[in-house]
Design a protein that fits this description.
Elements (H helix, E strand, L loop, with lengths): L7 H22 L2 E2 L3 H18 L25 H8 L7 E2 L1 H13 L5
Antiparallel strand pairs: 1-2
Length: 115
């Protein structure tokens, strides 16, 4: 795991707890995480920071600024299953359907660097 997650030493346990919580959600729903581990770490770090500051796992991608506890969704958001079904991934691009991630990776493998 990267050491620059910026959750602080005391927040690392909270980060790992949140990551485990999200992995369990993915497993139960038969989703997978985005293959870009830096992206996954950033989304989880921001969500963990929300937890440390506000006491709930507010979605960092859908939250307002400043955060609105009455209206901002907690992850997993109510629309997640619909988004994954429609787009192959949730709005944050944290959770993917396995088939959508495989298709995305197949497309990336066909891209070559010019030069």
């Amino acid at each position: 795991m990267k050491s620059d997650l910026q959750v602080g030493r005391s927040g690392m346990d909270d980060y790992l707890k949140n990551r485990s919580r999200l992995e369990n959600i993915a497993r139960k729903k038969e989703y997978v995480f985005n293959a870009n581990s830096d992206w996954v770490d950033q989304v989880i770090r921001l969500m963990t920071n929300n937890y440390l500051k506000y006491g709930k796992y507010y979605c960092p991608c859908k939250q307002s600024h400043p955060l609105d506890p009455e209206n901002d969704p907690i992850c997993p958001c109510p629309e997640m299953d619909e988004e994954v079904k429609r787009d192959g991934h949730c709005h944050c691009r944290l959770f993917f359907s396995p088939s959508a991630l495989k298709e995305r990776m197949n497309i990336l493998e066909t891209i070559t660097c010019p030069g």
